[in-house]
Design goal:
The protein is α+β, with helices and mostly antiparallel strands. The protein has one domain (10-101): 2-Layer Sandwich (Ybab, Chain: A). 55% of the residues lie in helices and 16% in strands. It contains two helices and three strands; from the N terminus they run H-E-E-E-H. It has a three-stranded antiparallel β-sheet. The radius of gyration is 21 Å and the shape is rod-shaped. GO terms for molecular function: DNA binding.
Length: 103
């Protein structure tokens, strides 16, 4: 956290220090949100998906055994894993954001 140099006015110095602390808190939340990843699995763990808070696909793992599911079942398993990953990252994002709003 960058602390502004003293101005000589105690009240202004206090307000500037509070603003610097808040800014540091927001930067930390932003960093944590950028690093967050939601994970979801389906088909007994044969399909695993990882997404970012923006909903971008970060990783997809399909176990070779999942190929026996058939195209329709595999597609459904991927969509289900993605949905679970989105729920996971949404929950994480709310928890991270709550650190800013909770005292």
């Amino acid at each position: 956290m960058i602390i502004p140099p003293p101005t000589g006015d105690p009240e202004l110095d206090r307000v500037l220090a509070e603003m610097a602390a808040q800014t540091a808190g927001f930067e930390e939340v932003s960093r944590r949100l950028q690093e967050a990843r939601g994970r979801g699995e389906s088909a007994g763990g044969q399909v695993a998906v990882e997404v970012t808070p923006a909903g971008s696909l970060a990783a997809l793992h399909i176990d070779p055994r999942a190929m026996r599911l058939g195209s329709r079942a595999l597609s459904e398993a991927i969509v289900e894993a993605y949905r679970l990953a989105e729920e996971d990252v949404t929950g994480q994002s709310f928890d991270i954001a709550r650190t800013v709003t909770d005292p």
